[in-house]
Amino acid sequence: MSTLRLTPIDPESADLIGRDDGLPAVAPERLEPDWLRRRFASPTAWTPELFEDSLRLSSQALRGAAVLIALVPRAEGLQVLLTRRNLHLHEHAGQISFPGGRCDRQDIHPAATALREAHEEIGLRPAGTEVLGTLPLYCTASRYAVTPVVALIPAAENLQPQPDEVSEVFEVPLAFLMNPRHHELREWRPGNDVAPNPVAVRRRFLVMPYVANGQRYVIWGATAAMLRNLYRLLVA
After folding, report:
1. 215 pairs with which residues across the strands?
2. 139 or 36, which is more confident?
3. Which key words tag this protein in UniProt (predicted)?
4. Which of 46, 99, 163, 193 is 20 to 30 A (C-alpha) from 86?
5. Looking at residue 157, which CATH number applies to its domain?
6. What is the pTM of this model?
């Protein structure tokens, strides 16, 4: 029996609802390692944003997973380490994501899952990694309950991505991602698919396009939503 593969969504072809130009960017001093350590050690009250996928799936049985929001220190400021998934993968082919994956029984904490998966996917060694904390669970359309683990990593050189899973590893400035001027709210409606999608529903999601060295990276969906919740934590 063949497995149905749903038509992928092109996020930038979805209707643009608006940009969050009216929200403040996270202040530069809050993007420094010492400030981040203090915020995660003594978090202030803040309210995570709930997106449609999470609301739709919150009452269903989901599989546990964790991702690593790895912050890399550079002379120009902290960078967020991201990957582009291989085009042949069944789920989220070609999409931008954090290293991470499904929780195993031996993982004693979501951080253990995130670090193990990052090592398997991109060759990131856990030695020297400083886990700052976690963000609230995020429920994905692929039926995972994901814990985002935020960590400072000492370096991101000499990584060895698994070619079967990851086609590219790259960095985006944390300051860029923590500025809502770069956050687009888009809405996709069924009906424009090349092939019919029997479970298609209207979806709203964030898109964060980023261009570097002539390459365009479209960060959207769950990855963008988790970054948005990181923004909410840091700006609170």
Report:
1. 212
2. 36
3. Hydrolase, Magnesium, Manganese, Metal-binding
4. 193
5. 3.90.79.10
6. 0.89
